[in-house]
Design a protein that fits this description.
- This protein has helices spanning 14-42, 48-67, 72-85, 182-200, and strands at residues 94-101, 113-119, 123-128, 132-136, 140-146, 158-165, 168-176.
- With 238 residues, it is α+β, with helices and mostly antiparallel strands.
Amino acid sequence: MRLVGPKLTKVWTSRRKWLGNVVPMLFWFLPTAGGVFWIFRTGRIFGPGLWSVIAGQVIGWLALNYFGLYENGRIRRDSMRNLIHRRPPAPGPVVFVGCASTKHHSILDAHEDVGFLSFGTNELEFIGDERRMRLLREQISQVRLRPSVHSIVGLGCWISIEAFINGMPVRLLVEPRERDTLWGNLMLSGWLKKVIDDWRFGIQPQAAHRYTHRIESAPSLDDPAPTPELGPGNSPEV
């Protein structure tokens, strides 16, 4: 009988990307469009139409904050279950993040992939739903904050991990997703940048921190079964 390993769940789906845009857009569009219609219909700029437009911007900002990371809690839990079974396993403590390369451009989501940033002894590795990227400590030249598309409305920023691999510049952009709102994760950006900076100088993340997870990987089907210890009462039969 051939043993089959656990099937990994597809986490970063087009549906979740679309709904992260469509749901906030609906909250913004309805009062904004209604206000614009009222202004054109009555010819009055100052009045209920203008107040409706202003309300649309406020409601849209709140909706983007709360629904921009649609189903983030489920994504995080599914990603964690997948991570336990991935091979090779995560090299150290992990933090849940969204990730993008410098070449990523999409109308669906700023995050090209979602997964975990893992802090090994000498390597920093992103382990995502679709890709893995590994950077050695000596390859990383600097870590800094960069604007993201959500920076326009004050709800996000990238942590840019910049490195040189074989003489070529490489940039890994990550953003915390440990919390379920954009504003909450923006508040974690400074913390995560400090964790990465500390790691570069040899300080491993504290596994006891609520947003740093230590993963116990599931045993691989390729690993040999452990040999039972012999002792009184469990000697092999002859």
